Amino acid sequence: MKQDKLEDIIFKAAIIAMVAGAIVAIYLVWLTSQESYSALYIYPGTYSNYINASELPKEISFKYGIKNYETGDRVYKVTIFLGNLMVKSKEIKVKKGETFEEEERIVVPKNITFPVKVKITAEVDGTIYEAHFWLKETPY
């Protein structure tokens, strides 16, 4: 009688362990399948593709944004390049589901070769997002 009762308890414990294991496995599969990404963009119309070379050095501006579609709040390392030259770098915290937008200003130096790519990158969790526009010399 004691043997049957012990087997019954072991059988019920095994069933409970299997159900709990299946629930944990389903949760982990669901968690890893959640899409996690960000969006980096430059607003069209907030910059000009042309600059008068005789006015250099000259400050230019543009507006960019970062939308956080990640699974939580994230800190983005934002870097701005003029060609291969890094002109600015900073860190920005964006909460999950929120958007950060900012007007950025950089100086185009006198010795630049046109056309030149104005590039912004946002690095988060090992992924690098990029947006850019081309800056060209005004035709005479």
Task: Output the keywords.
single chain; 140 residues; alpha+beta; 5-stranded mixed sheet; 3-stranded antiparallel sheet; 1 helix
Compact overview of the structure:
By secondary structure, this protein is α+β, with helices and mostly antiparallel strands. 22% of the residues lie in helices and 49% in strands.
Characterization of this structure:
- The structure is a single chain.
- 22% of the residues lie in helices and 49% in strands.
- It is built from one helix and eight strands; from the N terminus they run αββββββββ.
- The mean pLDDT is 91.
- The chain has one helix at residues 2-32, and strands spanning 37-42, 50-51, 58-69, 74-82, 85-94, 99-108, 116-124, 127-137.
- The strands form two sheets. Strands 2-8-7-4-5 form a five-stranded mixed β-sheet, with no helix packed on it. It has a three-stranded antiparallel β-sheet with strand order 1-3-6, with no helix packed on it.
